[in-house]
Amino acid sequence: MHRVIVDDAQFRTLHERGHSPTEIARLLSLPRSTVQERLSKLALPSPRDTTLRMSTPGVSNVHNDILIGMLTDWHEVVTWWQERRATLQGHLVLDRDCITSSQKR
User: What is the pLDDT of residues 26-80, one digit of tens each?
Assistant: First the structure.
C-alpha cells in the first residue's frame, strides 16, 4: 500500500473552496478521519454544508414555480391555523374558568 503525502496548503485550498471533509477525503484519496484530524490541527473548522441537496444532480429548480405559487396558500393555511389555535386556547381558558367557578360554589 502506498502512502499519500498531502501538504497543509492542499488542505487549506480545498477547505477555502468550500469542500466538506468528505469531499476533501475523496479528492485526496484519504480516510475522512484523517482529513478531519488534519483540519482540526490546522484550526480549520469543518464547514457546515448549507447547500441544497438535490435528488437528481444537475437538475435544479424543477418545481420552483409551483412552490412559489403555493406560498400564498401556505400563508393562508398558517394564518388560519394560528387563529384556530388561539380560539381553541381561548375556549380552554373559558372552560377552565367555568370549572373553577363551579367548584367554588
Answer: 998 888 898 888 888 888 765 554 455 555 555 556 567 777 778 888 889 999 9
Domain 1-49 of CATH type 3.30.519: no
pTM summary value: 0.42
CB-count exposure of residue 74 (10 Å: 0-12, 13-18, 19+): exposed
- Asked if 44 and 35 touch (Cβ cutoff 8 Å), the reply is no
SS (H, E, C) 21-76: HHHHHHHHCCCHHHHHHHHHHCCCCCCCCCCCCCCCCCCCCCCHHHHHHHHHHHHH
